[in-house]
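MODEL INPUT / OUTPUT PAIR
PAIR INDEX: 1
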Amino acid sequence: MNRNELERIARAMVAKGRGILAADESTGTIKKRFDKIGLESTEETRRAYREMLFTAPGCQEYISGVILYDETLRQSTKGGERFADLLTRLGIVPGIKVDAGTKPLPGFPGEVITEGLDGLAGRLAEYHRLGARFAKWRAVIDIADGIPSRTCIESNAELLARYAALCQAAEIVPIVEPEVLMDGAHSIERCEDVTSAVLTEVFDRLYAHRVHLEGMILKPNMVISGQKNANRASPPQVAEATVRTLKRHVPGAVPGIAFLSGGQSEAEATHHLDLMNRIGGLPWALSFSYGRALQQTSLTTWGGKGENVAAGQREFLKRAKLNGLAATGRYEPGLEQQAA
């Protein structure tokens, strides 16, 4: 393991004012997104969509890394340049989603476990040859009556740690993503309790597997009320609870925390990130690793039409820039109304 190189890449992924684009939607997930705009999901439409995002002029000012899907890592621009080479040339770190998705956790109704460890060492070696320098593995923890169970938290934390250790052995920076879902009706207090338990277990297992903390990135949920809660916490409450929880449970050795958006609206995810950075006094960089919260308006604007590429790119750049500002505590909600 080359610790210096892992640390260099990890720091670059959370460079000031920049964040990570999650463009790692599986074939099934991207089909759902395309269905909403009436576009058939084919290898070519998926390639064209990713090319629109990656070639947006100046995106490297705000985007430090891109998480790719296996298919996308192997694709190229229309001009023949491999996406990984294009991103690297722009100073953007290419990454790869390596988990195989979730499956029901036997004996624990309503809970899931992430699969994908089998053969991972070999896949990581290939991904490194293809240009990937970081990877992502997502664990999913739901909140409902009687869940999450201790077994679900411990099992998913163990897999995250084993994945992270395999990544570092392959000279790849692991993004460790334990996502506590915001789908339910739970309070922000309940989310804080569960997130605290999850982070405690995750870092316990990372220590046990001798993961080099300076050479990883954490991608957690924000501490937030469930979407079905009628009395959702305010943005300042979300920012305060999230920073408090992270300070209690995330070692300062971790170079950066890149939040997932987790179903928040584009503006909501940006506003929350900004408020956290305004609190200040943080031992790690607080940035973003958003999928829908960077892409949604851009995708709708593009609509699969060549004549709309420039307009779609403008929308993507607008969101990237606003999140870049939020990552330094300089975002203002009024900026949402300005033209892209």
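PAIR INDEX: 2
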Amino acid sequence: MPAAFVVLMLALLLGTQPVVTDLYLPALPMLTQGFGASMTQAQLTLSGLLLAFGVSQLVWGPLSDRFGRRPILLLGLGAYVLCGAAAALAGSMAWLIVWRTAQGAAMGAAVMCARAIVRDLYTPFEGARAMSRALTGIGIIACASPTAGSLIAEHFGWRTALMVPALFGAITLVLIALRYRETAPPAQPRSLHPQELARTWARILRNPKFIAFSTLTIGTYGALFTLLAASSFVYIQVLGLSRTVYGLLMSGTALFYITGTVICRRMLPRFGVQRTVMLAAGVSLLGGTLAAVPPLLGVQSIWTIAPSVVLIMMAHGVHQPCGQSGTTAPFPEAAGAASALNGFLMMVAAFAMGGWLGARMDGTVLPLTNGLWFWTVCIALSAWILVRKNGDLAER
């Protein structure tokens, strides 16, 4: 497959996640009011999706190692489209949560396979650079999603905003069906046997490199999830911004994420993976600290939060490609299982954070800013201790 097609394919597969999370955020207060639902229920439309996304990867990963990436992608993307359409037609908040959760489970196949395909095709170091190119594509999708979501919700209603991810998934499904060629290595016949699978998972979880890069991805995704889950309520209901302005701000934030992925590609040849991650961790921690301190001193303003988010998202553009490549690096024969475990751990952290946010949204910016500070501290500790010690991605 041509290199340009591989990057496009990875961007679309990974893009199924920001499309289904970012695009509906401007409509979240609207659909909450439409159903007469609580804020906790509204958070479940996101946290439930992400928990199912994480858990499902534990199934999709070993299946893709055994039967190949292609059949899993076709099955998962087909379910993603159907569940997205059903969510848009849901008659109650309870059914919306059900269908969004099912869509998250289906999405696990697309995202997990994309990460595994990177390991199928590239060495660990080149995988980090290839992933940064694909994540630039995700950044473009994430940049367009909030603005598109706000305009769609404003003019066509929140149900249309929920239908768009199904259309995106259908386009991706057609592309995979027509152009993708299998990349998985030859399968081991006993790879799905419970004892063999348990041994594989235990080997992955004990690996110091996997631990180092998993903690990094958990921290950086935790910060992103905190922003996604809390920003619409904080920006619109606490700070009084319009949905359109909120969408523009989130799109602008995504531009800096794209900038981070480009910076990542420039830094890797010069500094290597470990130093690149450590330098970006300092930027993350600076952003988290600048976000958290003013509200603790009684200052609630978009002008203190937005610049801090810019720093966090630029660093996120460095941490994600390095972290995702690093978690699968030691396991070329079990990239699906390693990708699945990493995805599961990230989503467990996101689900826990969603529950914490749902219980603490108190009409101030503190849940958002304190959450960002917490995760950026975790990022710094992971980068400066674990990745520094065990994060060498040798060419092999």
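PAIR 2 NOTE: The chain has a mean pLDDT of 87.
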